């Protein structure tokens, strides 16, 4: 039997397919070509060269569709980042723990007299303020999980934004109606609304209520809302109502393909919440004015108990 010694050929150095002047002992696990470390990138199995990665990437149109569908959770991440960013000055001004109100809460949280004085923007700014790390952490954790269900799960970015802000404004409106003298803050109204929309969306696609995950969680949290002190009942219930309405119209398997009515409903909820809040608070407190920002600058507020 003739034996051929090919050890010399096996050990012969190879060069990178792209950088011809670089010797390498590695290869792309996809195409098999020799490649230097600069041209290889870690993959789920082995390492792929940049040309194989580029060839495997979806077309630009599909990348755009993927972005619109919210597969990268961009909206959820931005919302969480905004809430965390707002919490930093809140903590620095004395609101890092518990129910203590910082100067930041006084300037931006929700209050009937200040809304009557024209500071209607508090309906949205209050939704990015929190009372302490636990309050922030719980809301942001649930919001991230909701993003996985809705933004990545098929609703996409635009529907997700519509549901979120319709819920936020509806929660602020009912919080003012039920607790106008409180200093209300938190993303809970928006989170409740998104959870309600997720429950409706899953149920209308045939998922049993108990199996949606969010439905049972809402029931438990509503019991806690009505039984514990220091919680904004109006914020939670109002947000839930706003989310259910917009979710019903936007996330239906048939109507969801033509979501115009849902977006119109979301805009209507936001506009009516702002207008209704200002009118209701001015009817309650009369002509309030501010010469600056916050309670210390209020002039002429008189509660109308009639």
Characterization of this structure:
The chain is mainly alpha-helical. The protein folds into 2 domains: 13-56, no CATH class; 71-299, Rhomboid-like (Rhomboid-like fold). The protein is built from 13 helices and 6 strands. Strand 1 and strand 2 form a beta hairpin. Helix 8 packs across helix 9 and helix 12 packs antiparallel against helix 13 (260-285).
Itemize the secondary structure elements and their pairings.
Elements: H1 7-10, E1 14-15, E2 23-24, E3 40-42, E4 47-49, H2 50-56, H3 60-69, H4 74-92, H5 103-108, H6 112-116, H7 122-125, H8 133-149, H9 151-178, H10 188-203, H11 214-227, H12 233-250, H13 260-285, E5 289-290, E6 298-299
Antiparallel strand pairs: 1-2, 3-4, 5-6
Give the key terms.
2 domains; two-stranded antiparallel ribbon; 306 residues; disordered N terminus; 13 helices; single chain; mainly alpha; Rhomboid-like fold
Ends apart, CA distance between termini: 112 Å
Q: Over the alpha carbons, how many angstroms does the gyration radius reach?
A: 27 Å
Number of domains: 2
Q: Write the CATH homologous superfamily of the largest domain.
A: Rhomboid-like
What global shape is seen? elongated
Number of helices: 13
How many strands? 6
Please indicate the percent range of residues in DSSP E strands (runs of 2 or more). under 5%
Which structural category fits the helices and strands?
Answer: mainly alpha
Largest beta sheet, briefly? 2 strands, antiparallel
Question: pLDDT below 50 for ≥5 consecutive residues: which ranges?
Answer: 1-11
Q: CATH top level of the largest domain?
A: Mainly Alpha
CATH topology of the largest domain: Rhomboid-like fold
- Which strand order does the major sheet show? 1-2
**Helix and strand succession?**
HEEEEHHHHHHHHHHHHEE
User: How much helix is in the residues?
Assistant: 55-70%
The average pLDDT is 84
Architecture of the largest domain, CATH level 2? Up-down Bundle
């Amino acid at each position: 039997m003739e034996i051929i010694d090919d050890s010399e050929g096996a050990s012969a150095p190879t060069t990178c397919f792209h950088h011809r002047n670089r010797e390498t002992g590695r290869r792309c696990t996809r195409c098999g070509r020799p490649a230097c470390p600069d041209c290889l990138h870690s993959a789920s199995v082995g390492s792929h060269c940049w040309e194989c990665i580029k060839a495997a990437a979806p077309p630009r149109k599909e990348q755009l569709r993927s972005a619109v569908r919210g597969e990268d959770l961009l909206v959820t991440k931005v919302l969480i980042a905004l809430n965390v960013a707002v919490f930093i000055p809140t903590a620095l001004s004395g609101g890092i723990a518990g129910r203590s109100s910082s100067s930041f809460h006084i300037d931006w949280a929700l209050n009937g007299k200040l809304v009557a004085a024209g500071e209607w923007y508090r309906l949205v700014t209050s939704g990015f303020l929190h009372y302490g790390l636990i309050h922030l952490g719980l809301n942001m954790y649930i919001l991230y999980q909701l993003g996985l269900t809705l933004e990545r799960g098929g609703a996409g970015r635009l529907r997700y934004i519509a549901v979120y802000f319709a819920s936020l404004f509806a929660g602020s409106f009912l919080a003012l109606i039920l607790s106008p003298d409180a200093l209300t803050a938190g993303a809970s109204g928006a989170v409740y609304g998104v959870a309600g929309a997720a429950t409706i969306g899953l149920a209308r696609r045939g998922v049993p209520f108990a199996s949606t995950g969010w439905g049972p969680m809402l029931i438990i949290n509503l019991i806690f809302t009505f039984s514990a002190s220091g919680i904004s009942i109006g914020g939670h219930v109002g947000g839930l109502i706003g989310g259910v309405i917009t979710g019903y119209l936007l996330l239906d398997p048939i109507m969801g393909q033509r979501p115009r009515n849902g977006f119109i409903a979301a805009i209507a909820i936001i506009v009516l919440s702002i207008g209704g809040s200002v009118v209701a608070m001015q009817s309650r407190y009369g002509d309030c004015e501010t010469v600056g920002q916050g309670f210390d600058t209020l002039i002429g507020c008189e509660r109308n108990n009639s």
